[in-house]
Fold these 2 entries.
Entry 1:
Amino acid sequence: MTPSDPLPPCSILLLAGGQGQRMGGRDKGLIEWRGEALIQHLHRLTRPLTDDLIISCNRNRERYAPLADQLVQDDEQDFPGPYAGIRAGLAVARHEFLLVMPCDAPLLDVELLKGLRQTAADHPGQPVMIRQGEQWEPLLCCIPTVHRAVFERHWQQGQRSPRQTMAELGAVALQCEAGDRRLANLNTPDLLIDITP
């Protein structure tokens, strides 16, 4: 965060705890793209925005630790999904908002993240999700941390859809055009090769 940043402080969660099935089981955050690990691209983008950078990871913790202020991991085995990572991030977040993004979206930019934060500030108490065209993107969101208890309760009740929990909390959309290049998920080997500079 910079002194001139008018937005409320936020914690940031990078989701790197998945099984990487579409990558042959590889740890997606550590896969190289344009000469460096995917997580490095997100680290460079987010590091100036927060003093509470959280990475959710379930393996290779020694590789992620130097990039984060806090590491979290799922408390269940077998990679239970992104809800588990969001839940863990909310439990430790130090600020009023938790800005969430997946590790395989290296084309995100500051303007998009600022838009999420501004929309959250304009709608107190409501989560904000990116909507690309008509498609919601629940792993690109900003969640008021006051809702950590709701996420925990839903988890205990068997909920595994972050979108569903946020919808029940009155989520609002930050609208992006369909096909917005910044939202590309590089989650298969072909996409790593095909995405244009």
Entry 2:
Amino acid sequence: MEFHPSTDCGMSSVPKVRLAEGLEICRILNGMWQVSGGHGAVNNTKAVEAMQAYIDAGLTTFDMADIYGPAEEIFGLFNSQLKSSGNVVPALQGLTKYVPRPGAMERKVVEKALQRSITQMQVNTLDCVQFHWWDYRDKRYLDALGHLSDLQQEGVIRELSLTNFDTQRLMEITSKGIRISSNQVQYSLIDQRPSARMEQFCVANNIQLLTYGTLAGGLLSERYLGAPEPTSRATLSTASLSKYKNMIDTWGGWSLFQDLLITLDAIAKRRGCSVASVATRYVLDRPAVGGVIVGCRLGVTGAGQHISDSLKSCSPELKLLAEDHAAIEAVTRRSRDLMELIGDCGDEYRS
């Protein structure tokens, strides 16, 4: 796995990782799921304007999907504005996802979907397509991946990746000769399922893990330290909060979560950073993890602190020591086994 600091990231030096086919992306990615719905109203114009702050900070990699509402369109508008600004344009990376509905995966179906993303994102080639499939019993995901691999060879896409595939299917796909650059999975101090099986396979096959849910939708922060358990729609006001509160409940509940926050807060104070930075750095340091996807607050108040936390988490000045890991693991070892309760990565999306 090749990591090195960026030399063209604006005001800060954000470390990057090189994917299998050579694409360099930031190790902190700007996640655009929050514009897909369930996180409040989205104003496309304000969202486009807000993207500049991330670029100025050196956070030049955006993660989106064809099913994330206007995400690809917002990226495309910003991309177009950058190119027409007349200024020196920093390298911008756009990773999207192809999430087809069940059905025949003929080449023309795949081509049409990719062309739509190309048009929306206003690019000539897709930097990275992360493929998701809802039902493993329907083996046509292999047909789709075969076409994606062919289109990659033809230059339509640069990196071919997966989203929420488990280790068994990852092994199956690569055994067919399909080269996979990364797999996007949930990975956090709460959900450490990738460490059970997937990390080892990914390290052996030069496949990066791009992780989401690393901050549990914002629950892994000082804001919830000592806070009463959120249970109502008013206190779980976004899709992210609701989703990751359910994960915490399965993992061990609010009392154990408070023990974790107390531990993280003590580490953060010793290291001069935030709980969010510690939680992110813990996952960044895991084997096979190429990058962490942090929800992008496009046009939302408080984005400045959010960006600052992200930069701190990947700073070489922040190092988690053996004593920090021991303190964290003293809490997490008391949790339930999510591999046993849920299954491998992505199984929560499949019945």
